[in-house]
Amino acid sequence: RVIQFRLCLEAAGFRTTVSGCIDDWLSAHAAFIVPVMLALDASGGDPSLLSNDRGLIGLLVDSTRQLYRALRKSGNTEIPRNLRTLYSRPMRRFAIVYWRQVMRDGRGELWFGAHGRAAPEETASMTKHLDEEMKRDGHVAAALSRLEEVSRPVESPRNR
Questions:
Q1: Other CB atoms within 10 A of residue 120 CB
Q2: CA–CA separation, 140 vs 149, rounded Å?
Q3: 105, 104, 117: which is closest to 41 by C-alpha?
Q4: How far apart are CA 10 and CA 5, in angstroms?
Q5: Are 79 and 28 in contact (CB under 8 A)?
Q6: Could you tell me what percent of the chain has a pLDDT over 70?
Q7: pLDDT-derived band of residue 19, with 50, 70 and 90 as boundaries?
Q8: If DSSP states are collapsed to H, E and C, what string results for 117-156?
Q9: Which residues 6+ apart lie within 8 Å of 120 measured at CB?
Q10: What is the mean pLDDT of residues 27-36?
């Protein structure tokens, strides 16, 4: 059934791949999505504000790179080649320019902004999953921890 479904999608013009390990695929997907969503949260959910914050975009890129490296060390082979390339150390500057442009030109809102604002519990769940996976495998993702810190709303004394 999976192959038949794949053929239908491909006949309609969609590129497809079939994963033999959905847990690894979901972890790789979370490692891509979570840093973007946390960076957006830190920008008040506004992609255009995020596009102007080079430091926060750099933290997004560094977080994903660290997560991908940790996942690969744990044996995850489900990280797409184009993303492995984008998040490689030599491509860091390009990745920052890329993400600033995406967030500035409307794709950030279309691809991430509205969804992130509508589903904060999804981001929280994926973040928790990544944190647990990193701890379980003994990896440190310092940039992700920093993104989590800056994306949390500051509590006022009245809200405590």
A1: 12
A2: 15
A3: 117
A4: 9
A5: yes
A6: 95
A7: confident
A8: HHCHHHHHHHHHHHHHHHHHCCCCCHHHHHHHHHHCCCCC
A9: 41
A10: 96
Say if CB 54 and CB 96 are below 8 A apart.
Answer: yes
- Assess contact for 28 and 78: CB atoms under 8 A: yes
Pull the structure tokens for residue 31: 């490692």
Six-digit token pair at 15?
A: 């590129």
* 2 DSSP assignment: H
Confidence class of residue 153 from pLDDT cuts 50, 70 and 90? low
List Cβ neighbours of 87 (8 Å cut-off, separation of 6 or more): 61, 64, 65, 68, 95
Name residue, tokens 């600033």.
Answer: 100
| Tokens found for residue 116 | 């992130």
Which of 44, 82, 42 is closest to 58 using CA atoms?
42
Q: Is the pLDDT of residue 70 over 80?
A: yes
- CA 90, distance to chain mean position in Å, is 19
pTM: 0.86
User: How far is 64 from 56, CA to CA, in rounded Å?
Assistant: 12
Residue type at 89? R
